[in-house]
Each structure stands twice: as structure tokens, then as C-alpha cells.
Amino acid sequence: MLDDFLVRAMLAGVGVAVAAAPLGCFVVWRRMAYFGDATAHAAILGVALSLALSTSIFTGALAVALVMAMTVSSLSGRGYAMDTLLGVLAHSALAFGLVAVSFLQGVRLDLGAYLFGDILAVSRSDLAVIWGGAALILTLTVWRWSPLLTATLNPDLAYANGIDPKREQLVLTLGLAIVVAVAIKVVGALLIVALLIIPAASARPLARTPEAMALIAAGLGGFAALAGLRLSFNYDTPSGPTIVCVAAVVFALTNTIARLNNLRSQN
Fold it and tell me: CA 97, 102, 107: angle at the middle one, nearest 5?
């Protein structure tokens, strides 16, 4: 069954959606979209270094994404405006990555596949990496769910309960780096954050609890991946952007329905 490229693509899309959903909720709650952007853009530099050193793309992307995330965390609160810092680092990392790729000699590289994803080219080994990363992220999230949620809602309350918010920030940083590394083949560095944020934002008006929001986000992300692949196959459109377009339509629908329900309840 896994010899069918479309089946592998579907499994890869669902795997990335499952991995991204719980972390995407924290990204939405903490308003960390630009933080995720900086981490994702740095992955292109990781791709270039991986090819130059003949190592796996996953290893290089994960290492550089983690370094970028740690750099942002360490520089925050030291007199730098966060939005300015993230803007500088995000675009600088992407630019250095693109320049580094141009210096690679004797390497054929489809740069568009790493910028916008190439889910139809996912191999069995890629599937193993994606689902292994998803399992690792889910394990990490379940293990640290309560401390992460407490630190997100109220850092002072977290301190009172013996929880270090900086440690939980580090856990979230590690999780984001793993998501970037496993998702770069599926949706690309420029669209990873969209798959993190849009399903979580779509689930927000439908959920009554944080746990429900994470589960609904996973379901909506999986639906966007499968529906996007189907539409891409039928209409010959780029797969990664089509998946994000479906997610955006779902976001518009869920929020419109939520607003209409609020208006009816007020009347």
C-alpha cells in the first residue's frame, strides 16, 4: 500500500497535522506566530548545511531550527523589541539559507520543494521521520501539558505551583523545532507556520476546553491535508499551498458560524 505515492502523501499530511495541532494551540495562545516563522525560515539554512555535510535533511533542519529558537529565547527580554528581533532573525536566516544553497556545487536541489513543500515526493523513510517526530511531540505535549498550560495562562500562578515558565518555554521551543524539521518536506519552510496556526485558530471557536481545542485542531488539520491533496490532484495545483488554502477556508467557515451563533444568542 505504501508504494502508492498518494497514500504516502496522505499519511504524511495527517502526520504533520497531528504533530502541529497541540503546539499550534500554544502558539495561538502565546501569540508566537512570528517566533514560529523565524524558526521555520532558519530550516532552509539547515537544509543547505545538511547537503554540504552529506547528512540527513531532518538532522540539519532540526539543529538549525533549534539554534534559532534558542537564540530568540535567550535574546528576548534583553532590551530588544520582540517583533523587531524576530523580523531581523527570520528574514536574515532565510536569506543566509538561500545564499548558502547557491554555493552548493554538484548538488541538484529543488529549492521550491523546501520553500513550499513537495508532499507528493515523500518516501517511506520520510514517513518514518514524520510519524516518529509526531509521536515524540505528542509524548512531550502529554507529559508537559499541565505545566505548559499553567505557564501559558499565568506565569505568576506557575511560579506559585513550582513551575518554571522559562523551562516550559524551552519545552515548547524544542517541540516547535521538531515540527519544523518534520514538516519542511510536506508544506515547506514558508508555509509551516500556517499549518501550525490556522487549524488551531479554526478550532478555537468550536472548543470549550484547551484539550478539546487541541483535538479539534488535529482533526481540522488532517482534513485540510486530505482535502488539499485531493483538490491538488484533481486540479493540478501545488500541494502545499492548496492544503493551506483549504485550512484558510475552514478557518473562515468556523469563525463565521461562531459569529452567527453569537448574534442569534444575543437576539
Answer: 105
Q: How far is 189 from 173, CA to CA, in rounded Å?
A: 17
Q: Where do the domains of the chain lie, and which CATH numbers do they carry?
A: 5-190 (1.10.3470.10)
pLDDT > 80? residue 82: no
Q: Where are the alpha helices (DSSP H) in the chain?
A: 5-30, 33-53, 57-75, 82-102, 111-116, 124-153, 155-160, 165-183, 192-203, 210-235, 239-266
Q: Select from 206, 217, 172 the least CA-distant residue to 26.
A: 172
The whole-chain average pLDDT of the chain stands at 86
Nine cell digits for residue 177: 523545532
Task: Give the pTM.
Answer: 0.88
Alpha helices in 109-191 (DSSP H): 111-116, 124-153, 155-160, 165-183
* Distance (Å) of CA 189 to CA 9, 14, 111, 184, 265: 17, 18, 10, 5, 41
- For 215-256, write each residue's pLDDT tens digit: 999 999 999 999 999 999 899 899 889 999 999 999 999 999
